[in-house]
Design a protein that fits this description.
The chain is of the alpha/beta class. The protein folds into two domains: about 90 residues, no CATH class; about 290 residues, Alpha-Beta Barrel (TIM Barrel), CATH 3.20.20. About 45% of the residues lie in helices and about 10% in strands. It starts with 8 loop residues before the first helix and ends with a helix.
Length: about 375
């Protein structure tokens, strides 16, 4: 699979200076972690789940989570498990390309049980999402994953969700983060990415952000994100990919503030119509949050609606200017450091301090591609919507 693989080769050639690479479930963990993109969640109870998975794959989704936890009623768990098995068997029989598929479980025992029940169809399973992850609760999940991996003979990844009150509450946060860091480091080969459960953070204080506000406007949430990145997202080789929080809104409602989406990039052709549609569907706040995610060290995003996927992917494409800067910084002859003016002549690139940023940028360029010099977010989004 590849990002923007759902649009035609001719359109990709017009959009990209460097096209996104191909990757698959067997690719290196570093590549898969960067390539997760918009991870679309779906309740495991959906009766036509196999059809849903294939439909979303055809629309550009590359990672999905089938949820057995908060998205379904407690009384539905047994049937949802049986449904996952049926749908995986159906997908396996159909053949064809599917996204990276993960199952969000409730308890450790579900992991080896589901892997055993899936049988041959388990080859389509990339791993499990582990809820309310702490050191105490997380170790049994990761041990169960290791057992299932040995029993199945297949590589299985974990994506812990950081959403527990211990992380939110100031008096327990440092201890909780230290314990999580110990745990994920011990099982580093199996931890693909860490996911942030911001909805649970807000719930602990009875908060819910409006569509006019990003997660970063809720100060108590911002502080947790900053501390998670501080401990678990370092660029010194000890860090992990940390994905952005879910955007909850997908229906229009009365706005309280002026639109955050600037008008100027949308003035040509149908772009103004696209801008209007984004604002009407409350996606301008999503776009701003995606930008803030990346500025704060996050990559990828949890999504609950298909309309969120393409904006996440379009804003993940590396601009030609970013690519130029990253390449300049990482040139072998710059190994000794120094400062240079960017090729765009609008900034100074300081080689040593910007090296980690440049390395991350080139990894993102590998999986999401590099836009041509005159191509921006609007063109990428419009192509994905209309091609």
């Amino acid at each position: 699979m590849r990002h923007f693989g759902h649009i035609s080769p001719a359109v990709r050639a017009r959009l990209f200076h460097q096209e996104p690479c191909h990757f698959g479930a067997d690719s290196a963990a570093r590549t898969l972690a960067a390539a997760l993109g918009a991870t679309l969640y779906s309740p495991a109870t959906r009766p036509r789940l196999a059809d849903d998975v294939l439909k979303q794959a055809a629309r550009g989704v590359v990672s999905m989570v089938l949820c057995l936890e908060d998205s379904i009623d407690d009384a539905e768990v047994a049937e949802a498990e049986a449904n996952i098995v049926r749908q995986f068997v159906d997908l396996d029989a159909r053949g064809g390309e599917v996204p990276l598929l993960f199952v969000r479980v409730r308890n450790p025992e579900q992991i080896p049980d589901l892997v055993g029940r899936l049988g041959q169809a388990g080859r389509l399973l990339s791993g499990f999402v582990l809820p309310k992850f702490t050191e105490e609760r997380g170790v049994p999940f990761l041990e169960a994953l290791a057992t299932a991996e040995v029993g199945s003979g297949r590589r299985l990844f974990a994506m812990p969700v950081l959403e527990s009150p211990e992380l939110l509450h100031l008096e327990t946060r440092t201890e909780a983060l230290t314990g999580i860091a110990r745990t994920v480091d011990k099982y580093r080969d199996r931890v693909l990415a860490l996911r942030l459960g911001v909805t649970d953070f807000c719930s602990a204080y009875g908060l819910r952000r409006s569509p006019d506000m990003t997660a970063y406007d809720v100060r108590i949430v911002t502080s947790v994100i900053a501390d998670v990145v501080n401990v678990l997202g370092r660029s010194d080789g000890t860090g992990f990919t940390i994905t952005g929080p879910v955007w909850e809104y997908f229906r229009s409602q009365e706005r309280m503030f002026k639109p955050q989406l600037r008008r100027s990039p949308f003035l040509e052709g149908r772009a103004e119509e696209l801008r209007t549609a984004l604002i009407e569907h409350d996606l301008d706040g999503l776009l701003r949050e995606i930008e803030l995610d990346r500025a704060n060290g996050l990559l990828g995003k949890t999504c609950i609606h298909p309309s969120h996927v393409l904006p996440v992917h379009a804003l993940s494409v590396v601009s030609h200017e970013e690519f130029s800067d990253a390449q300049d910084i990482l040139r072998p002859e710059r190994g000794g450091g120094g400062v240079l003016r960017s090729a765009y002549t609008n900034k100074m690139n300081e080689v040593k301090p910007h090296r980690a940023w440049a390395e991350r940028t080139l990894l993102r360029a590998e999986v999401f591609g590099v836009a041509k010099e005159d191509v921006g977010f609007v063109e990428l989004l419009a192509a994905g919507l209309t091609d």
